[in-house]
Amino acid sequence: MTRFAIRVKPGAKRDAVGGEHAGALVVSVRAPAIEGKANEAVRKVLARELGVRSRDVLVVQGERGRDKLIELAAAPAGVEDVLAALRAR
After folding, report:
1. How far apart are CA 1 and CA 6, in angstroms?
2. Cross-strand bridge partners of residue 47
3. pTM for the whole thing?
4. Please, are residues 39 and 61 in contact by the beta-carbon 8 Å criterion?
Protein backbone atom coordinates (compact mmCIF):
# COMPACT_ATOMS: atom_id res chain seq x y z
CA MET A 1 0.00 0.00 0.00
CA THR A 2 1.34 3.41 -1.00
CA ARG A 3 -0.04 6.82 -0.05
CA PHE A 4 0.86 10.17 -1.59
CA ALA A 5 -0.50 13.71 -1.76
CA ILE A 6 -1.79 15.32 -4.94
CA ARG A 7 -2.96 18.80 -5.94
CA VAL A 8 -5.81 18.72 -8.48
CA LYS A 9 -6.40 21.32 -11.19
CA PRO A 10 -9.94 20.70 -12.49
CA GLY A 11 -11.16 22.25 -15.74
CA ALA A 12 -7.70 22.11 -17.37
CA LYS A 13 -7.17 22.11 -21.14
CA ARG A 14 -5.92 18.51 -21.03
CA ASP A 15 -5.46 15.60 -18.64
CA ALA A 16 -1.87 15.53 -17.38
CA VAL A 17 0.25 14.47 -14.43
CA GLY A 18 3.47 16.24 -13.58
CA GLY A 19 5.04 18.87 -11.42
CA GLU A 20 4.92 19.60 -7.76
CA HIS A 21 2.96 22.01 -5.56
CA ALA A 22 4.00 22.24 -1.89
CA GLY A 23 5.30 18.67 -1.97
CA ALA A 24 2.22 17.24 -3.70
CA LEU A 25 2.07 15.76 -7.20
CA VAL A 26 0.06 17.98 -9.58
CA VAL A 27 -2.76 16.29 -11.52
CA SER A 28 -4.63 18.33 -14.15
CA VAL A 29 -7.96 17.04 -15.45
CA ARG A 30 -10.43 18.36 -18.02
CA ALA A 31 -13.41 17.36 -15.90
CA PRO A 32 -15.11 20.05 -13.81
CA ALA A 33 -15.18 19.90 -10.03
CA ILE A 34 -18.88 19.03 -10.02
CA GLU A 35 -20.56 15.93 -8.55
CA GLY A 36 -17.31 13.97 -8.23
CA LYS A 37 -16.46 14.15 -11.94
CA ALA A 38 -12.98 15.52 -11.26
CA ASN A 39 -12.28 12.79 -8.68
CA GLU A 40 -13.20 10.07 -11.16
CA ALA A 41 -11.01 11.71 -13.81
CA VAL A 42 -8.13 11.92 -11.32
CA ARG A 43 -8.42 8.20 -10.59
CA LYS A 44 -8.35 7.33 -14.30
CA VAL A 45 -5.43 9.62 -15.15
CA LEU A 46 -3.34 8.40 -12.21
CA ALA A 47 -4.14 4.77 -13.01
CA ARG A 48 -2.95 5.27 -16.59
CA GLU A 49 0.29 6.98 -15.53
CA LEU A 50 1.08 4.46 -12.78
CA GLY A 51 0.07 1.33 -14.69
CA VAL A 52 -2.65 0.18 -12.30
CA ARG A 53 -6.42 -0.28 -12.54
CA SER A 54 -8.50 2.82 -11.75
CA ARG A 55 -10.35 0.92 -9.03
CA ASP A 56 -6.98 0.47 -7.25
CA VAL A 57 -6.60 4.27 -6.94
CA LEU A 58 -8.49 5.50 -3.88
CA VAL A 59 -9.10 9.05 -2.67
CA VAL A 60 -8.77 8.61 1.11
CA GLN A 61 -8.76 12.28 2.07
CA GLY A 62 -9.86 15.55 0.44
CA GLU A 63 -12.83 14.28 -1.53
CA ARG A 64 -14.19 17.84 -1.90
CA GLY A 65 -10.95 19.84 -2.08
CA ARG A 66 -8.06 20.36 -4.45
CA ASP A 67 -5.56 18.79 -2.06
CA LYS A 68 -6.10 15.04 -1.78
CA LEU A 69 -4.44 11.98 -0.29
CA ILE A 70 -4.31 9.04 -2.67
CA GLU A 71 -3.85 5.39 -1.73
CA LEU A 72 -2.82 2.68 -4.15
CA ALA A 73 -4.34 -0.60 -3.04
CA ALA A 74 -2.02 -2.70 -5.21
CA ALA A 75 1.09 -0.63 -5.81
CA PRO A 76 3.41 -2.05 -8.48
CA ALA A 77 7.12 -2.42 -7.83
CA GLY A 78 9.02 0.81 -8.40
CA VAL A 79 6.00 3.08 -7.94
CA GLU A 80 8.03 5.47 -5.77
CA ASP A 81 10.47 5.98 -8.65
CA VAL A 82 7.59 6.68 -11.05
CA LEU A 83 6.10 9.21 -8.62
CA ALA A 84 9.47 10.95 -8.26
CA ALA A 85 9.82 11.14 -12.06
CA LEU A 86 6.30 12.60 -12.39
CA ARG A 87 7.06 15.25 -9.75
CA ALA A 88 10.19 16.22 -11.69
CA ARG A 89 8.27 16.83 -14.95
Report:
1. 16
2. none
3. 0.94
4. no
